[in-house]
From TrEMBL:
This is Uncharacterized protein. It comes from Ascobolus immersus RN42.
Length: 78
């Protein structure tokens, strides 16, 4: 999966559709939960690890969109 995001452009998400948390970004990839690794299957661990790293890369690219970043971090303001 290749995703590119221009940090200087406006967000193309629908209104209110910016990602707001990492858990919702993972939803669907592993049935909405973090995978449980079986230590007897290193191939699965490697494959799921690669998938998680790619999802994190995509998440970080999305956070380059000003609107997404503001919506995500706004909920942590006090």
């Amino acid at each position: 999966m290749q995703v590119t995001v221009d940090a200087n452009t406006d967000c193309t998400h629908s209104d209110g559709d910016c990602p707001t948390d990492w858990d919702s970004e993972l939803e669907g990839d592993f049935g909405g939960t973090c995978p449980v690794f079986d230590d007897r299957t290193p191939e699965r661990l490697e494959e799921e690890g690669e998938i998680l790293m790619e999802r994190l890369r995509v998440w970080e690219l999305k956070m380059k969109n000003k609107c997404c970043k503001e919506k995500f971090y706004k909920k942590y303001e006090y």
